[in-house]
Amino acid sequence: MQEAAKGHKIPSVLAATSADNIWQGIQKVLYSNGKNIHCHKRGDLPVMRAKEINRIIVLKVDKETERLVVHIDGLDPMPLLVPKDDQYLIDEYNALLDYMEHPEVEDTAVRTYSETNNVVPVFRPCYCSIRCKKIRGKLRCFVLITIAAPPMPKKDKYGRPRVARGNGRVGCDIGTQSAAVVSQNSVELFNLGERNQGAYQKNDKRKKFLLRKMDASRRAMNPERFNKDGTYKNGTHGKWKVSKSNRKRLYKYRELCRKEAATRLYANQEAANHLLSLGNVLITEPSNTAALARKSKKKAQRSDKASQIPQKDGTTKTVHKFKKKKRFGASVLRRSPAGFQAELRKKFGPGYHEVPRMTYRASQYDFMLDAYIKKKLDERWHSLPDGRQVQRDIMSAFLLSCADDEFQSIDRNRCLQAFDHFWQMHQQCINTIIQNHLTICNSGIKLDKAV
């Protein structure tokens, strides 16, 4: 790696950092659940990382302006700009600037720890990274600074905590597109990765329109690459001809994808913060998102339902179509349930608990009968022996919140004690969804009448 870096005039620090990243990917394939090593695509913007604070990407204090600047070999110093309305970044910036101006505070912190055994956070920078993004047609560079200290508490402009932490248990059943939450004082059912209802449908129409336009332009500019029936001609090589209008459509498509990804990230972070305000102990099931996103491994099978296919001569032909092998890939891409669960794991910390999926089986347990009743995936309501019906995902979240102290099985006595209060909150949640005409994916809630 060092010889290749010298031949291509790559600094040794950047080469060593890249080698470390590559080795982490190889380790995941060799010793973990990784299957393939993925490389960056052509056209992806680079990420520069130098894991030495005093080489290649150097963080310093400008003595004239008393501000932090970044020095990169061969370029002029670049000052760090912090948004004026982000109090969290301002606090982090000021703490980092104080350490850079007075590095002797680290010795004082070590002395304090040796004498009193109290840890004093020191905002010492470890290394810097440069990440580039294209936002609204403009190239923007972001500096990511790794600091050897816990993050600053997030506060609003009045100095109050931005997220109020609650107490108690929170049961969360995470599906492919929605999540059900049950706490001591609330029952909620909401879509994942969504801030404004209906925004995804609008973006899908725009993206499909742009893809059709780009495909038509690509075929018109490169007719020699396609057969008469519209299929791609194998064996054709060379550079594709791309029109200016097609490049503009590509930029619009990428901007839509970037906005969707940002919306999905912010929505899941806001939902995780809301759950943090409901309690300090979160109970959920392990994630199986990767398995749900893959195609079925079974061979293609014929459907039991007969389909009528019209023929050219006016007659119809009865056939049994093949069942689709696709499952939840598009839903997982659109809603990012694994990303939401990762946010919960990060924010709750030691209060995050996962129950064993194979033995817990929250969606199948009936605590009144004390028995497990297997349900099909399309059965979205749980029927109790007394005739009452509970939404399936909400019922699973309730049973998760009633786990025993070891989080290994369901505590039936706790379910019986808390069910009456839970039933009232459940009815209120369902009525709120119906009255506000909220469309919850895969919930089975009909919006025509309230319960």
Can you tell me about this structure?
By secondary structure, the protein is α+β, with helices and mostly antiparallel strands. The protein folds into 3 domains: 1-39, no CATH class; 43-162, no CATH class; 169-195 and 253-296 and 324-435. 38% of the residues lie in helices and 18% in strands. The protein has 12 helices and 17 strands. It has helices spanning 2-7, 12-31, 87-101, 105-116, 199-221, 244-278, 289-293, 329-335, 337-348, 357-360, 392-401, 412-435, and strands spanning 47-50, 57-62, 67-72, 78-79, 125-135, 138-147, 169-174, 178-182, 187-191, 281-284, 307-310, 316-319, 352-354, 365-366, 371-372, 381-383, 389-391. Strands 9-8-7-10-13 form a 5-stranded mixed β-sheet. Strands 1-5-6 form a 3-stranded antiparallel β-sheet. A hairpin with a 4-residue loop joins strand 8 (178-182) and strand 9 (187-191). Helix 5 (199-221) runs antiparallel to helix 6 and helix 6 packs across helix 9. The protein is globular. The termini are far apart. The model has no long low-confidence stretch (mean pLDDT 88).
Share of helical residues = 25-40%
Average pLDDT over all residues? 88
User: What fraction strand?
Assistant: 15-25%
Count of extended strands? 17
Separation of termini?
Answer: 67 Å
- Uncertain stretches: none
Described by the principal axes of the CA atoms, the overall outline is globular
Q: What Rg is obtained from the alpha carbons, in whole angstroms? A: 28 Å
Order of helices and strands: HHEEEEHHEEEEEHHEHEEHHEHEEEEHH
- Alpha-beta classification: alpha+beta
Strand order, largest beta sheet: 9-8-7-10-13
Q: If helices are DSSP runs of H or I spanning 4 or more residues, what is the number of helices?
A: 12
Number of domains: 3
Sheet with most strands = 5 strands, mixed
